[in-house]
Design a protein that fits this description.
There is one protein chain. The protein is an all-alpha fold. The longest helix is centred in the middle third of the chain and has 67 residues. The model has no long low-confidence stretch (mean pLDDT 85). GO terms for molecular function: lipid binding; peptidoglycan binding.
Length: 93
């Protein structure tokens, strides 16, 4: 009796483990492929967003540099105008 019980337990254990050890079915494989495609798409989206962010940062830096150059040119023009005014005043005195 005890041997039959051990034999039945052993056979059921083997069958249970064999069922768990089977590979993924087609539905699971399709889901995994879909998830892989989604991950790839997300990676591409992240890369595109990073590139856009870098371009925005570059554009902002270029705009800041252009503004600084314009301010420097304006200051230099004001200085030149003052010098011209001083020269003109020296001739009229």
């Amino acid at each position: 009796m005890n041997n039959k019980f051990l034999l039945i337990a052993g056979v059921s254990s083997v069958l249970l483990l064999a069922g768990c050890a089977s590979g993924p079915d087609e539905e699971t494989t399709a889901k995994m492929a879909d998830q892989d495609a989604r991950v790839s798409q997300l990676e591409q989206d992240v890369a595109a967003l990073k590139a856009a962010h870098e371009n925005d940062a570059d554009s902002a830096m270029e705009a800041k540099q252009a503004k600084e150059a314009a301010m420097a040119a304006q200051d230099e023009a004001a200085r030149a105008n003052e010098r011209l005014d001083n020269i003109a005043q020296s001739y009229t005195k």
